[in-house]
Sequence to fold (527 residues):
Amino acid sequence: MIYQIYPRSYQDSNGDGIGDLLGIVQRLPYIASLGVDAIWISPFFTSPMKDFGYDVSDYCDVDPMFGTLADFDALVDTAHKLGMKVMIDLVLSHTSDQHAWFTESRANRTNDKADWYVWSDPKPDGTPPNNWLSIFGGSAWQWDARREQYYLHNFLVSQPDLNFHNEEVVQAVLNATQFWLDRGVDGFRLDTINFYYADNELRDNPPLPAEERNANIAPSVNPYNHQMHLHSKNQPENLEFLRKFRALLDQYGAAAVGEVGDAQLGLDLLGEYTAGEDFVQMCYAFELLAKDTPTPERLAQVFAKVDEVAADGWACWAFSNHDVMRHVSRWNLTPAAARAFCTLMMCLRGSVCIYQGEELGLPEADVPFEALQDPYGIEFWPEFKGRDGCRTPMVWEPSNQNGGFSAHQPWLPVSNEHLQMSVADQEEDPAALLHHYRRAIAFRRAHPALVAGDHSGVQATDDIVHFIRMAKGQQIFCAFNLSDSPTALTMPDGNWQPIGAELGSAHPSADGKLHLGPWQCALALHV
Ligand code: BGC
Ligand code: MG
Fold:
């Protein structure tokens, strides 16, 4: 159970309107009070912040905006004292164009780092070497007049892709990893883990038939969805890198969750990358970050696929993060529905990750065009408004300046609607979602079958999604009515004792029928 922190927006401690590491330290007791096992902090490394830290210009330092290495050490120390592990976000696939490696690499074609990035001559007609597209819009190739060559960028022009075919690059990123392991981090979230290698021959990607396109990764207005990314990512060499990465992790007993972004092959890659003990322990899946509300049928489909291609693998599920519209808005959830999805999440097989503010039920904030920061949103506005609406500051108090986030004007405006949903107000209100999250997290923690157990397969019966989680000596039946109408289900055979009263769990009637109210769950222990 992981809690994701977007450091720019968690807590500002020095009054510059931008969250920072000491701000996080200040709020760690609150995070610990949720009952989470670990925190994942989005990037805080030195960066020109063109992609808000996902463009790193020094892997081994803290950006002054966020604090110092000493602040980071204090953060790790405090988190550990509170019983939480610390995972940091390694963005290894690309660097910032301000990184010293790139400055050197782009200077000419003969320097020591000439081959550290993916460089290519133009086609004879001067156009880019192939048809690859950047997720953030336009060609994935940028012309560089110094070398008279193109370089590859899967994201912004200012995020050149490292060339992992070069063994020195592999060593350099492993050294950066070790730097943080030596500072005491417990694990990593690995950004865009399936983008590390590009096809050596730079072959064109084939088009993807319109009926196979989906907007799981990129919004539907993005032409990136028109290609099958056969050669620009998902290369088999990724596994060889992950093997080396895992060997390093194992020396420290550390763990990693790899982000696998692929609208078609995501779960297959999850299966490959988490199989056995050689690669990463977990992969962060996009299926439940999708635009459409997960129906029982869809959940059954997703988990059937996981059971098929990742039987001995391990997913990490999330409904919200710093890249997608907050799920309360994305799925248009009522408070009862938000509660049901929270409980469901805590019962799923796999690790789970919640995103700051999710525990408050925050909706997507409305950020006007003039206040937009995210280059992705600026590019595709207004059809896609980008990621600022899920990145606005955390709301701690209703009345204090900027919700208690900062004494100075925040980098993104605090939503007025959010001010009514602050931590302080919810702490006072026993009926608030925040307490439901705490109870659901505690419920998961108290049941080994939910934390690490297997499952019987996810079933859909009309509006109900149900399954049995099992670990040695423990079986838990879980059912959720994902609709606004009452419904019923027959209990599986055996003796089941209702549990989870604190989560509003229903009791089966004497005839073995389970009657579920709208958005109600039923949780029962096999006895
Ligand atoms: C991160 C994004 C980032 C991108 C490029 C991701 O998937 O989550 O926030 O823009 O990688 O690094
Ligand atoms: Mg600050």
User: Anything to note?
Assistant: The chain has a mean pLDDT of 97. The two ends are 27 Å apart (CA to CA).
